[in-house]
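Supplementary Text 2. Reproducibility record for the structural model of the 462-residue chain.

All settings were left at their defaults, and a single model was retained for analysis rather than an ensemble. We include the record here because the model underlies the residue-level annotations in Supplementary Table 4.
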Amino acid sequence: MKKYQLSNVNRPSVEFECGGNIITSGVIADVSKMPNFKEPTLFMDVMLPKEEIYTPPMNIRCRDNRQFGRKPMVGMCSIKSLAPFRCEMDTDEEDIEIDEQQLKKEISIPIEGMYASIRRSKKKKKGRDTDSTVLSFEEYNEDNIDWWCKFYASIEEEQKSGDYLEKNLDTITVYSHELEKVKGYSEFHDFIHSIPLERGKAMDDDDLDIVGEFKGSFRIYSLPSDPSAELPSRVFSSIPSTENIEVLVRVYIVRAIDLQPQDEGGAADPYINIKCGKYKYSDVENYHPNTLNPLFGRLFEFSTVLPLYKDLRVQLYDYDLLSSDDLIGETRIDLENRYLTQYRATCGIAKSYNTSGINEWRDSMTPKAILIQACQDRNIPEPKFIREDFVKVGNKTFNLEEIEEDIPVNPHWGEPEQRLALHVLHHDKRFTLVPEHVETRPLYDVSSDFEQVNIQRKSQNY
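Retained model, structure tokens:
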């Protein structure tokens, strides 16, 4: 929050007003140390019309609790349309019965002979023969294949990818825009929204002064007409801890595309600058001379505290020998939104679960653990693994033997249980998770907010 009457906003509280009803949050003791409210959920009973056109706005006011009982309003926002926040209460899914004893009988056979050695030219999997093309996984030389081959194969630059595509190895998704703009992710506002707080009065067509940001959300749903009837369960029944949490952030900067010339010769000497809270790093020693399309291939790893330091700033500077370096542009990423979203934007989900090889699983969580967490986030019963290749998730069942029936055996594969969980995450429409990816983000001139260049990057936070 910006200062109000020359004083910092240290002890804010928020009040919500809709249809003449007002409810007020608690007071944050010190926003510089803990910006979250201790009691994160509020409930308000409001009479609203069914027609959206007649619905009153939701007014959000932020007040600073100062000495002698003063509570000046330091910022406000009015949400005129409540349609995006309306929701229908979930109904119970139709359950299905599974004969667990019959499933157990189906696998009560000797283990020996179920899986042959991966060194054999022809393999057996789950009692069936598979084509001998699986040898392609054993025959390629991994010394000649690295992540760059995988990247160039993903953007279909075959000359730089070597024989990666010929080996039928996994590729990654390369987005031509920011990850937040990908259709289906709701800009990662599914759990919380970033609502700008304004101050002052708009004169003519001038914008109001944005003085801060409120991060939160609300849901509107109908209550039973009978006052004695049982109230529906609250939408925000299970929420993360409101305490500060330390996370590990890894930022991979791949390359920049079509930089704006900074020198008289029509080129630039770009290098990377990273800022996130107290962490600041300038990679000036690795600047790239005389280029507008630098290939960085740099990794930056650091720890930060959410939500205290939520904004990651990636900057490109132009190196100058005799004068101060010029800022080419920067992009900002809200790490808190990526950490809290149900789409799991912390670390992209790989296409296959391998315990070795070029596509070895690198996520801090296994597919099974991710599946269990995804079910909890969506109020779906915890997945029930009847056996290592058969699982029930809510009202659906998945059989790994049927899924991999026509897929050549890969010697780098991990446990069947993990492969099955990963298949559910990829193909069950109830779980829309961010895949392993590289995103392309525009860099802006912070003084004018004009788009300058594009930079390709990916990030992980745990």
